[in-house]
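User: Sequence for ATP-binding protein below. Tokens please.
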Amino acid sequence: MSMSGEQGTLFDERFLGRYAGTIMSDPTTALVELVANAWDAYATTVEIQWPDRESGAHFQITDNGKGMTPEQFEVRWRTLDYDRISYQGAFEDPPADLPAALPRPVYGRNGKGRHAAFLFSSPYRVRTWRDGVEAIYLVSQGKQNPIEVLLESRRDGIQGHGTEINGVHLLPCSFTAGDVRALLSTRFLTNPEFAVFVDGVRVGFSDVPSDCLQELNVDVPGYGQVKVLVIDSQRADRTTKQHGIAWWVNRRLVGQCGWRMSDQEKVLDGRTEEAKRYTFIVHADLLAPAVQADWGDFRPEHPVWLQTQEAVQNAIRNVILGITKEKRAKAKETVRRSHRNIVKDLPGISRERWNRLLDQVVDQCPSMSATQIDQVMGLLANLELAESQYSLLEKLHALKPDELDQWDAILERWTISTAKVALDEIEKRLKLIEEIRAKSEIPGTDEVHEIQPLFGQALWIFGPQFESIEFTSNRGMTTVIKQLFGGNQRGSLNRPDFVVVPDGSVGFYSRPSFDTEFNENGIDVLVIVELKSPGVPVGSDEKGQVWKYIRELMKKGYVTDRTSVYGYVLGDRIDSIDGGERKEGDRIFIRPMLYNTFVGQGEKRMLNLHRRLLDAPFMQAAMAEFLAKPEVEAMPAQMSLLNVPAVQEGGEVPAPLPTGNSPDEAVMA
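Assistant: Structure tokens for ATP-binding protein:
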């Protein structure tokens, strides 16, 4: 048995019908699709000959649109899933004989609409002409191919442009010509310059069934009255393209019919069934002064447009509210059931407020989906139970749209708990830096000892090796420290190993070491922080004092050859000659440091967030608290918190001139 070397895809004869769906099975959908195709070709006139068994007339639809060349027809008709937007764009430009017309938004997207002709005849003929060429094709449903296209004739020298579809066979249909006009009247009356005729009779408002048409008179304060026609197509179409609000001025369409963004915010969500079913035609000749020169839209700030749009939107919203009353009641009941367990625990006044808010959200926010409404009401119920109540909403209300987008992006990547952990740590560290900066700048020695307790939380500023939470004040060293500083000295109540000395203060912070069995066996790292009062220069004597403390602790066995010791002596000036680091052996380091350098180093380790977060509420509160203190009033202006130089990108921290008039005084003993 021989087989052909050519292989292709085989199609069942039922494939096309299943692929096109209701387009080939429902007369209403088929008619709408065929007329929409004429609109997309920029036709201004469409003529339909309705099939009639008595007269023998076959189905025929003719438009004066732009037509197709043979090459265009064969691509568009042979391509099953023809992507109209990709090939031709979302707007169709007018033909050359309509130079003043505006581009039209097109209805078609996937090319299925052309299959609608098979409902009225299979096969059917297409005659299309443009650019002087006319071509006639016979289009059939094939057995080997879903569509078979056969060129029957071609002529040159043809004038004009357009497309005509003719039925080859007469297929029965329960619709009459009057039914067709009624059907099309609910979808294609939005543009007065687009005329559809059925058996020679133009489709008009008189064809709209009485139960599908409602007329409203809307007062526009200070300007007059406009008429709004409400047309109900009685079934939702696939898209909103044939629906929305059409604004007519002197029987001419301004812009395009559709749901503007403001309409969707105030009137109706464009994704809903109602948006695909209802059309509102506004006869508003009083808007003539507000029409833009090209009739593409209204001048957005013109007072008559603003006043009329608001009045019409309110009237249309009331119509929609009446139409959707039952649906909204059902939506409210669904939300109440969803959150009944939370709401039942609310106090009576809170339950009333929650139910009132639910009514307002459902009735006044048409752009919100059922899921979004459910989410909002769940949030409001939780806010009623929360201690902070609605303060969160107040904060959200104050945010700009782009800031709300930023919050949404943050919550995409962070949970509230993880974000709070990170932000709390950042806040604690930045506030700590500000407090050390502020207190180190206040003249006089009385307040110096207030800085020392902060250093137990600020060891990380000295370097990453001191980040460990195991660094604590070592209570076991209290007796040694008392002996070291004399019998009359004692540790503070908060930190037994923190002592005040005549010219400053000293703090001891250690991290324990452990043996191979994880038992604590001494001190692994000891940090000694000595703070000198402003005006006391840091030199060899001050470093020697720290070495004296270390030697005493070594004698008592607290510092061993396994202990690393870091001594820091901080002041507002460093001796220019003896201000270098002192090192004893391989594990003991004593380093002088300026307060300003320490603060700047802290800012650098916090990625210079200080300057970038100055407007954060917690930073503003810290500054206000500092500036409100009486002792700050005596500070020179250049020492104010707001005038502290920032840490530069290279890590250099400009040192201020704490006292005197000469720069040399900052480093001289």
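Residues 15-182 form a domain with the Heat Shock Protein 90 fold (CATH 3.30.565.10).
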